[in-house]
Automatic annotation (TrEMBL):
Keywords: Repeat, TPR repeat. SUPFAM superfamilies: TPR-like. This is Uncharacterized protein. GO terms for biological process: cilium assembly; protein localization to cilium. GO terms for cellular component: ciliary basal body. SMART domains: TPR. It comes from Schistosoma mattheei.
Length: 251
């Protein structure tokens, strides 16, 4: 007989741990149990909303987020994830409003900046998209450098320098904005930087190859060949740069 704790905090924490190890079914079961015990449990509802968003059930996710919005209207992560769900519903104006609110609350979060960049790409506001994507890359690189410095100080922490996301896709998005702004030489630099930073990410490789088809067919074919040998895993499929490890840690 399995002992199931009747403490919503424990269940929520278990759900978070399961989610971080990609055991989404077990995560959702724990989160659902926590919500049954305490319907307004902030962490459980927020993480459940993210799980549901990743499965593209945006209306249900929004209901989860709305149920906790009153108790934490100043959570940038919550506003960010509401924006993601609204983007999934193609409600772009409302999504922009949510991302701007999130950015106001946490102006130096690179994930929120990239979401604003992506939403402006959807609305063909290429200069605004370029500005936010550039900001996101700069913030990402600052965080990465700080992590590397901490790793150098803490020699025993071999994983301290690792970052959650792949910066190569940010450079790909930057490259597409530059194409739309007729800055082709700078777009080339962006895509080459993307490949340099993330040459094991199949999405980066594919985007770089597509860009190079007309200007450097030989290199493009090499990239296409490499792309076909790689598998697209969930590590590269998370939409709109939601950082699932941070969801339950921001109120």
């Amino acid at each position: 007989m399995e002992l199931v704790p009747e403490d919503p905090d424990i269940l929520s924490n278990l759900g978070s741990l399961y989610f971080q190890t990609n055991q989404e079914q077990l995560a959702f079961e724990c989160l659902s149990s926590a919500i049954i015990l305490k319907p307004d449990h902030f962490d459980a509802n927020q993480l459940a909303g993210l799980v549901i968003t990743l499965h593209k059930d945006y209306d249900v996710a929004l209901n989860k987020y709305r149920s906790i919005l009153k108790q934490s209207s100043e959570s940038s992560i919550l506003w960010n994830n509401i924006g993601v769900a609204l983007m999934g519903k193609r409600n772009l104006i409302a999504s922009i409003t949510c991302f701007k609110r999130a950015s106001y609350l946490t102006p130096f979060d690179w994930r929120i900046s990239i979401n604003l960049g992506i939403i402006y790409m959807h609305t063909s506001q290429w200069l605004s998209a370029f500005q936010h994507i550039t900001t996101s890359i700069n913030l990402f690189n600052i965080i990465k450098q700080r992590s590397i410095r901490r790793s150098a100080i803490n020699h025993n922490d071999k994983n301290n320098h690792k970052t959650t996301h792949d910066v190569g896709m940010l450079y790909c998005l930057l490259g597409y904005c530059l194409i739309k702004l007729n800055e082709y030489s700078k777009a080339y630099e962006a895509f080459m930087n993307a490949y340099k930073q993330s040459n094991k990410n199949p999405l980066v490789i594919l985007n770089c190859a597509n860009f190079l088809v007309k200007s450097n067919k030989k290199l493009a074919n090499q990239m296409f060949a490499k792309y076909k040998k790689l598998n697209l895993t969930s590590e590269f499929e998370l939409p709109y740069w939601v950082n699932k490890n941070d969801v339950s840690n921001n109120k």
